Amino acid sequence: MNNKVISIDDNNDHLSVANSISETNGEISVNKTKEKKRSGLRLGYHYIVLKSLKESDKNDVIKCIYIKSLFDFGICVIKEGVSGASIDKNGRDIRDRLMWQKELHEKLHGHVKLPKALAWFEENNISYLVLERIKGKSLHKVLSEMTPSFIPVAYGNKKSPKIVGYLLQIISILEKLHEQHIVHRDVTVNNFMVTPGGNVYVIDMELSYSTRDHHPAPPFKLGTYGYMSPEQEATLEPTTKEDIFSLGAIFIQLFTSISPAKFTVNENDNLRDKLNYFIPDKKISTLLLKCIHPNPEERPDLRVIKSEFEAYQKDTKTGRSREKVHVPRYEKKEILDLIQSGIDTFSTPIFCDQGRGWFTENIRNPSKADKTKLNKGWYSSFNCGDTGILYLLTKAHQKGLDINKNTENIELALDRINNKYIQRLDATHPGLHFGSDGVAAVLSLFSGSGYVPKQYSYNNWIDKLVTKMGTEPDILYGVAGQGLANIIINNVQPNQQVRNNLHKYADYLINKQEKNGAWIRSVIENKKRITRGFAQGVSGIAYFLLEHGKIFNDQRSLNAGTKALQWLIQNSIQENGIISWYSSNKQKLPPWWSDGTPGIALAFLKGYAITNDASYKKVIDKCLKIHPIKVVSNNLSQNQGLAGLGEVYLEAAKITSDEQWIERADWIAQTILRLRKEDQKNGNYWLVQSERFPTASFMSGNSGVLHFLLRYCYPKELSAPLMM
Question: Which of 587, 675, 664, 666 is nearest to 637 (CA)?
């Protein structure tokens, strides 16, 4: 009897049933029911599970204790292979890969720094490879811990010498492998371990290939996205040049703190300028450009790479100056041209399907099994659906950009809003980011822009969409967010219903406010949990109340908002001239718009704009210096990335008239522009987070990136997203 997976089709409101057997990249993936590796579970005769390190349908990686005798015991790592899982076109399954790894570990031990193969056993049709445990952390984790300041190696991170030392050790490991006629074929930051003493070991040999024995034949397919050379993706006969490409990708990641996929996938002639911008050292950027050259014959040998990095390490230690590359800036006209190209790309198959319009990743059923395909979903909300895209297009149209290529998609978006919201009002949820109020706010702006592709009764729609009231107080899902939506509507199309809503929302929030000035998000084990951030916490609620108080001269709202700001100050942490906050469970907040210090700064900016209180300006200054001036992040989004941070900098510049925030926004704009992708047929786009496929959505996709760039071009004329 086949297992079945039942999922809800969010777009057609019906259930679909799928077999748990699927074909992925030439492999048949069989999702067999495996026993969960709970602590204390016994495997074979000698092994007891301590914890699961990695879980998947085809193979788990488990940390175990082995006990063979009174004096023979210790810690090991076991890799599991379920018989019949991931069968390729040659009939090989995950067990064949494990056996190949065992052979390699036995052959290479003593020649290459890698774990020793300790044992092999089989149980219940599952094979287990027992490996020596290398105590330490993955290079990926070490890098993330060494660069919490978002200063990459190329811009003077204090830990740079250590990171370059790790790179040189990786080169030495690859040299040893190549001497043994082995191509690794999966050189990534996750496949190297760093011990507490700073020694680097290679840990995963699954995709390796022997050039002497031409084995396995054919080579096992694929590798890691962003690290694979073109010839590896095409599954050509492996050579050591594949490892040179992957090594270049690792160097790029360690030098820039950005995923190599943003450099190596679908690149063109702009790659040189991109590398020169992020790695201004001329010799290093030139070397890395050669490492990831699409023609393997153009890639340098390991000895050349090693020599260049040894020279770099020596020069940085002695303080010797090195030649830098100057990269020209993007000026306003060029930026607007790129924004126009990005908007035009929204009308292409990169972002939409004919007859259905703009898609995003399916929220309820994301692409897990086959990462080479996007499991699409169609939504209408501001955060991840059509409404957020309409918001960007409205602002672009207001500034004279051409959105006509998107007319069909705009009409499809309006049809979807009609079907999902207007025709089923009883089933809709209120809210700014994921509910009806956000849709109403954007429709009011869109209808006021003068761009009306279809004759819809927008005013009637808007009235219907703002009739419900939420039960949570926050911006993202709750009443404060509804308040911001109604403020937008009131500014465009004032009416009594909207004003009544605003007063009702303010009264609700004031009555919900604790005596200390905060709002309770939840109560867990009799402990009150208070969220600080803008999206779901105190600062976002304070922002709405301050705005409400200013518009209607309502002293109760102003007092409540001010009281909340005082609570935030009292519960802040000050260190080295920087203000930050911890969560209710004493964890540091991520330093972005949604949860962290930059988003919280928006509330103080609103307070300063209303009261001109100098103490708020000091808080703003200390909040926004949580990042270095030349901040770099792999995440470009509004929600948890550079675009959202840039929006806060622009808001700070507009309200405080302090040029330092414009300078910081300028760095972010130039950085984001360098990370764009160019499809010669369809146009410009961005891989905004860690996705393989771009989406047009606002908070985590291309609309949010384009909005920041547009606002950067018109900082005094455009507002922050969903603000007035």
Answer: 675
Do domains 41-132 and 137-318 share one topology? The answer is no
pLDDT at 163 over 90: no
Average pLDDT value for residue range 253-280: 85
Query: Measuring CA to CA, which residue among 325, 237, 318, 239 is closest to residue 280?
Result: 325
Helices (H) and strands (E) in the chain, counts: 23, 25
Q: Which amino acid is at 209?
A: Y
Rama region for 492: left / alpha / beta (φ>0; ψ in -120 to 50; rest):
alpha
Hey, what amino acid is at 312? Y
pTM: 0.90
- pLDDT tens profile 475-527: 999 999 999 999 999 999 899 999 999 999 999 999 999 999 999 988 777 78
- State phi, psi for 635 to the nearest 5 degrees: -95, 120
Burial of 426 (0-12, 13-18, 19+ CB in 10 A): exposed
146, 163 contact by CB (below 8 A)? yes
Return the residue matching tokens 């102003």.
558
pLDDT class of 85 with cuts at 50, 70, 90: confident
Distances 172 to 188, 227, 247, 302, 324 between C-alpha atoms, Å: 15, 19, 12, 9, 27
Whole-angstrom distance, CA of residue 573 vs CA of residue 425: 45
CATH superfamily of 137-318: Transferase(Phosphotransferase) domain 1 (1.10.510.10)
H runs (alpha helix) in 319-357: 332-345
Angle, CA 264 vertex, CA 261 and CA 270 arms, to 5°: 120
DSSP state of 298: G
> What's the CA gap between 545 and 552, in Å, rounded?
11
DSSP state of 523: E
Instruction: Give the three-class secondary structure for 25.
Output: coil
pLDDT recorded at residue 157: 62
Closest CA to 10 of 276, 325, 355, 360: 360
Each domain of the chain, given as residue ranges in start order, spans 41-132, 137-318, 330-364+627-723
Residue 716 near residue 654, CB atoms below 8 Å: yes
Structure tokens at 348: 């292409």
CATH topology of domain 41-132: Phosphorylase Kinase; domain 1 (3.30.200)
Least confident of 57-61, 184-188, 368-372, 444-448: 368-372
- Residues 29-35 have a mean pLDDT of 51
| Burial classification of residue 323, based on how many CB atoms lie within 10 Å of its CB (0-12 exposed, 13-18 middle, 19 or more buried) | exposed
pLDDT tens-digit profile of 548-583? 999 999 999 999 999 999 999 999 999 999 999 998
Q: What sign has the CA pseudo-torsion 328, 330, 332, 334?
A: positive
Identify whether the C-beta of residue 389 lies closer than 8 Å to the C-beta of residue 382: no
Q: Rounded to an integer, what distance in angstroms lies between the CA atom of residue 105 and that of residue 26?
A: 27
Q: Give dist(CA 262, CA 673) in Å, integer.
A: 12
Structure tokens at 363: 């929220």
Q: What is the C-alpha radius of gyration for the chain, rounded to an integer number of angstroms?
A: 28
